């Protein structure tokens, strides 16, 4: 006897729904919105382990290529992946034979279509049957919270006025890969070997640029100094 396990998700604004079609009967359940798709697989495999079907052969179908790829990646050390591998090994030790196969969604596969129907029905069921939060979700939420706090401190700070003009948004800055050099740091902080900065500390007698048009500030070097016209054109063309 083969047991067909068909996994599929359906989402609503407040919950994520999963269901399993194990020939007959069918099983539906509701999970919290943060629950990862791998959690669904683990949950259903635990259910299988409780059912004493013989002979023990199970075929897992899913329309998620990412899930299958993650499960086949032996270098993936994420907690849920390792837990699924342990469950698979435990099932195999009890004479279960498991296979995982990808099927195309909405392509007329009877089990997948039934799974989709049950997922929609489960959307009406607000009873949560699995409430564990994946470690990756906790890390993500804490990271977002940290960035929010960082942004608030950045907005409230009276320091870094020049840098704020370049990078007002912390999240956007973190997305950029920037090769930090002394000259770059000077430009985005306003601190360094510019005559206007050095003149503030009486290191130079005059803040005036060698072009004799204005003081040698960061803005002047970037936007106005005629001696840097060629470099400015290259920068504009590059951006």
Give a quick summary of the entry.
By secondary structure, the protein is of the alpha/beta class.
Tell me what you see in this structure.
With 239 residues, the chain is of the alpha/beta class. Helix content is 48%, strand content 15%. The chain has two domains: 2-134, 2-Layer Sandwich (Nucleotidyltransferase, domain 5); 157-238, no CATH class. The protein is built from eleven helices and five strands, in the order E-E-E-H-E-H-H-E-H-H-H-H-H-H-H-H. It has a five-stranded mixed β-sheet with strand order 3-2-1-4-5, sandwiched between helices. It is elongated, with a radius of gyration of 29 Å. The N and C termini lie far apart (63 Å). The model is unreliable at 6-31 (pLDDT under 50).
Write the layout of secondary structure elements.
Blueprint: E1 2-11, E2 16-22, E3 26-31, H1 37-50, E4 57-62, H2 65-72, H3 79-93, E5 97-102, H4 110-122, H5 135-156, H6 161-166, H7 170-175, H8 182-189, H9 195-200, H10 218-224, H11 229-238
Parallel strand pairs: 1-4, 4-5
Antiparallel strand pairs: 1-2, 2-3
Helix pairs in contact: 1-3
* The CATH H-level homologous superfamily of the largest domain: Ribonuclease H-like superfamily/Ribonuclease H
Separate helix tally:
11
Give me the CATH architecture of the largest domain, please. Answer: 2-Layer Sandwich
Distance between the termini: 63 Å
**Residue share in β-strands:** 5-15%
Largest sheet: 5 strands, mixed
**Portion in helices:** 40-55%
Number of strands: 5
* Quaternary structure annotation: single chain
What's the CATH topology label of the largest domain?
A: Nucleotidyltransferase, domain 5
Radius of gyration, in angstroms, nearest whole number: 29 Å
């Amino acid at each position: 006897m083969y047991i067909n396990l068909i996994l599929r998700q359906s989402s609503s604004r407040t919950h994520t729904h999963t269901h399993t079609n194990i020939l007959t009967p069918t099983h539906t359940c509701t999970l919290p919105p943060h629950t990862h798709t791998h959690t669904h697989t683990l949950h259903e495999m635990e259910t299988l382990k409780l059912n004493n079907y013989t002979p023990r052969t199970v075929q897992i179908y899913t329309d998620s290529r990412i899930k299958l790829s993650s499960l086949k990646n032996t270098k993936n050390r994420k907690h849920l992946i390792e837990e699924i591998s342990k469950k698979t090994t435990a099932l195999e030790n009890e004479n279960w034979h498991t296979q995982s196969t990808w099927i195309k969604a909405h392509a007329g596969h009877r089990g997948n279509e039934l799974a989709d129907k049950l997922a929609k029905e489960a959307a009406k069921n607000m009873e949560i049957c699995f409430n564990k939060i994946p470690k990756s979700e906790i890390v993500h939420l804490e990271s977002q919270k940290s960035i929010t706090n960082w942004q608030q401190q950045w907005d409230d700070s009276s320091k870094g006025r020049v840098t704020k003009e370049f990078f007002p948004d912390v999240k956007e800055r973190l997305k950029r890969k920037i090769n930090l050099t002394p000259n770059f740091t000077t430009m985005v902080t306003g601190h360094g070997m510019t005559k206007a900065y050095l003149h503030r500390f009486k290191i130079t007698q005059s803040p005036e640029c060698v072009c004799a048009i204005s003081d040698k500030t960061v803005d002047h070097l970037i936007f106005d100094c005629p001696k840097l016209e060629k470099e400015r054109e290259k920068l504009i063309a590059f951006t």
